[in-house]
Amino acid sequence: MTDAAISVRGLEHFFGEGEARKQALFDINLEIRRGSLTILMGPSGSGKTTLLTIMGCLREVYAGSIRLLDQELFASDEITRVDMRRRLGFIFQAHNLHDSLTARQNVMMGLQVHGRGDPKRHAQAADHLLGLLGLGERLDYRPANLSGGQKQRVAIARALVSNPDIIFADEPTAALDKVSGMAAVRLFKDLGRTRGTTTVMVTHDSRILDLADRIITLEDGRIIEDRAVSGA
Ligand SMILES: Nc1ncnc2c1ncn2[C@@H]1O[C@H](COP(=O)(O)OP(=O)(O)OP(=O)(O)O)[C@@H](O)[C@H]1O
């Protein structure tokens, strides 16, 4: 195994066809170390979400190479991508919680899609993570009775409960107050240190930049800055 969780070489991406064809990413090259926390920044339309979703196996790689956990995604088949997605955790703003399920049950869904297991242990894992995210008192609440920030924290717990190798997050802290936002990012960092979990997140949240190991800035589909953060 290499030290890179993600290795991107010469990645390009296009949307649309014919005259409407528009290039969204130009010659992206990146190596992201296992266990690190990387932030993607840049103005609206710069390509952050496109890059995140391609790296997360949610879009096809048309040109260039992406190796995720030592597996090439270019020209990969759907089975490989489905297997790979099981090793990833996704946190997006539209959190898609199930309205009829409690916070605990929603988090347990993050385990049940990965196959069978002991429901009691699933519940314990869900409760543990929800507790770490400050929702220990809300385990049996349904989404309708949770605030936007609380729902976001349930979505974070759901992404983490399966112990993913890589977490892809799009603005995970946008709906959170400062204390819960910092707690969530600290949790990503702790997982990096203790389990080697790699986190890549898109954010505009200046409160958490200091916690990153690395900040990559995109503009017009290109990386214009890539810097290590000292003292992270
Ligand atoms: N499904 C799509 N079809 C056509 N064009 C798209 C599609 N998704 C993104 N684009 C275009 O690709 C470019 C990059 O978009 P992307 O959403 O990756 O930017 P972003 O940096 O994440 O922006 P934001 O911060 O607003 O979410 C933009 O010009 C956008 O209009």
Automatic annotation (TrEMBL):
Residues 8-232 form the ABC transporter domain. One of its GO terms (cellular component) is plasma membrane. The keyword NAD does not apply. Keywords: ATP-binding, Nucleotide-binding, Transport. Signal peptide: none annotated. The keyword ATP-binding applies. CDD domains: ABC_MJ0796_LolCDE_FtsE. It comes from the Bacteria. SUPFAM superfamilies: P-loop containing nucleoside triphosphate hydrolases. GO terms for molecular function: ATP binding; ATP hydrolysis activity; transmembrane transporter activity. InterPro entries: AAA+_ATPase, ABC_heterocyst_DevA, ABC_transporter-like_ATP-bd, ABC_transporter-like_CS, ABC_transpr_LolD-like, MacB-like_ATP-bd, P-loop_NTPase. It holds the Pfam family ABC_tran. PANTHER family: ABC TRANSPORTER, IMPORT ATP-BINDING PROTEIN. Belongs to the ABC transporter superfamily. This is Putative ABC transport system ATP-binding protein.
